[in-house]
Specification:
With 443 residues, the protein is an alpha+beta fold. It is built from 13 helices and 16 strands. The protein has helices at 2-17, 38-51, 66-69, 76-90, 97-113, 120-142, 154-158, 162-169, 177-190, 197-217, 255-268, 297-302, 355-363, and strands at 234-237, 240-246, 251-252, 279-280, 283-287, 293-294, 312-315, 323-335, 339-350, 370-372, 379-383, 387-390, 392-395, 398-399, 404-405, 410-414. Helix 5 (97-113) packs antiparallel against helix 6. The two termini are 48 Å apart.
Length: 443
């Protein structure tokens, strides 16, 4: 998959930026798609930088400004986030429309084949998208001109084989270079002796293989000592764990928060609603089963450090399909002795979409999913166990050579690539900027 995340983006950027080597009488100044230059290139790079603080810490490294750093060790992961998630939005007013739509076909097709689980319908849809991209690419760029035959690289032709190879070998993500590089990195960290490094890493590889075989034969056997839970955390079931900071005493909620809590209270048929003092003890963070840590608005706003926004989440079961929310805080309700046990809930503002957002989604081949942020106007309460993952909600920037416009309450969705495998990792997300103690901070 490195051919996709590195070679094809390098080709497209070279075409749009006009840095791809021409031959014969062909000159870059005659390329109508050469629009990512000058002020447009600088504005695009700045917009990529502006997106960084909205990408959660669990997403790993954020892409740097390509206008400044693309030739300074720009990583494959940076290309992946930049080209396949941020690009469709940030380039929509820079590239000519037909070139932008061709690019969107490429992005959506590659997103499908980067999944770790691909359905038959997705496989067929992704194959059609990539075939259409290849045909359009030749018509738009190559244009049957001998001087441009080097535009159609092997990595472009490779896209036509992804579907058949997926049927034969499985999703490409499983045998991509990502997997091999991760394994090499993990084995390298296990080497403790400076002498004979290659022999040592070979032995670690043999040991890892033996452990994998034993685990395959006896799946219930614990071969690795589990990590200790964070100090002063609270396990709430189903792989979820509340993490500090936490209020020492209960704090009164706002009127709109209290209304949302009472609406959920009534739908559950819980008792003693009249006796509730309209106050809760807030928790700042929630560890998810996939290892991600979802923060909250309250937790991030009280921090003295500059944090990447990690409070946007994907939520299931609110209606017939998943929705997205900004978490205000987490809290616990108990009704003993009437109802045994505790209920662990989150207060969140739900993002909504409009008809125009759906039109944009269709025009972008489902790459751009826009949502409106409504704040207190659309608060909802839901169980913490309904939170599926941490996502990024990035401002829906309008980028041109003249300006970068950031709307007030309009965002687009970015989900972490490869999140499906996070559940199998032994290490949890590092979130050291929080202490383990309680807080005396008020509302």
């Amino acid at each position: 998959m490195h051919l996709i995340t590195l070679n094809d983006p390098d080709l497209l950027i070279g075409l749009w930026h006009g840095t791809l080597k021409p031959f014969g009488s062909d000159k870059p100044r005659n390329w109508e798609w050469r629009t990512l230059i000058g002020d447009a290139w600088e504005a695009h790079g700045k917009a990529v930088t502006l997106c960084a603080k909205y990408i959660p810490s669990s997403f790993g490294r954020t892409p740097r400004n390509p206008a400044e750093k693309i030739n300074s060790g720009y990583k494959a992961w940076e290309f992946l986030i930049w080209i396949f998630w941020l690009g469709p939005v940030l380039l929509r007013h820079i590239l000519p429309h037909q070139y932008w739509q061709n690019y969107c076909r490429f992005v959506q097709g590659c997103r499908i084949f980067n999944q770790y689980q691909i359905t038959r319908n997705q496989l067929q849809h992704g194959h059609r998208l990539l075939l259409d991209f290849i045909d359009e690419f030749e018509d738009l760029y190559y244009q049957r001109q001998p001087e441009r035959i080097h535009f159609v690289r092997q990595s472009i032709h490779l896209l036509s084989h992804l579907s058949s190879e997926t049927v034969r070998l499985g999703p490409p993500a499983y045998y991509a270079q990502w997997t091999m590089e991760t394994l090499i990195g993990n084995l390298g960290k296990e080497v403790r002796q400076p002498g004979n490094p290659f022999s040592n890493i070979s032995e670690r590889g043999v040991l890892r293989t033996q452990m994998n075989v034993v685990h395959a034969m006896f799946p219930d056997l614990e071969l690795i000592e589990p990590q200790k839970p964070p100090k002063n955390s609270l396990y709430v079931g189903e792989g979820y764990r509340l993490l500090r900071a936490k209020d020492k005493v209960i704090r009164h909620v706002t009127e709109v928060e209290g209304k949302a809590i009472m609406e959920y209270w009534n739908t559950q048929g819980w008792p003693n609603s009249e006796a509730w003092p309209r106050a809760v003890r807030r928790w700042a963070r929630l560890q998810l089963p996939n290892g991600q840590i979802a923060r909250s608005k309250w937790g991030e706003e009280r921090s003295r450090r500059k944090l990447r926004c990690t409070r946007m989440v994907k939520v299931r079961g609110l209606e017939e399909y998943a929705k997205f929310a900004e978490i205000y805080y987490y809290f616990e309700l108990t009704f003993e002795p009437e109802i045994p046990g505790s209920f662990f809930l989150a207060v969140g503002s739900i993002f909504s979409s409009t008809e125009s957002d759906q039109i944009l989604r269709n025009n972008s081949m489902a790459n751009i999913n826009c949502y409106q942020y409504q704040g207190d106007a659309d608060l909802m309460v839901f169980p913490v166990q309904s939170i599926l993952s941490v996502v990024a909600m990035v401002p829906f920037f309008t980028v041109t050579a003249e300006s970068i416009i950031q709307p007030k309450n309009k965002f687009f969705l970015v989900e972490k690539p490869g999140l499906e495998l996070s559940i199998h990792l032994e290490t949890l997300e590092n979130d050291e900027e929080y202490n383990d103690g309680d807080t005396d901070e008020g509302e």
